[in-house]
Design brief:
Length: 189
Amino acid sequence: MAVDASGVNPSASALVAFGVDRDEDKWESETSASLVSSSDDETKRRYPQYRPPESFSKVHFELEMQFATKKDVMDAIKLYSVFKGVLVKFKKNDKARVRVKCIDRCPFELYCGRMKNEDTWIVKKLNPEHNCGRRLRNRFASSNWLGKHLVDDVRNDPNVKMSIIKDRVVNKFKGLTQMFDELMLGVDH
């Protein structure tokens, strides 16, 4: 048994400080010293933070990823659905949780919950596997959704021609232009 210069067993004094009676004959634990805090114990774990990706092909989720608001969670799910070419359904969507599953009965599942006393949301359950095929039509890829992603381009140049907007869409959303061609059919040129 280790004893310091004052003749006191430091692990026993730590237990007494926490109100634990220690009988040397009954047990001895090497972990009892861990009740005393150290600088290593005070380091907080950092969770991955969601930031809208610059390249839309890199949309992904991670377990324990944090979102600032529920709107960020919903936007990320819609981006993921459109750019991965999968159809998802909101199984639960209320003030405390969002649960999403793939429509095609593949194992993909995402569950986000609101953290207590905060507006921060965190991914609590994630199964990223998809065994379904890629879909070209997606209900989230609407003209409103596309407009949100192009609004800054149009604000910067209000007299921009439709052909230039279409070229920007092709460059920004590589691989998704067939879906957007259908959306652009009704727009005046």
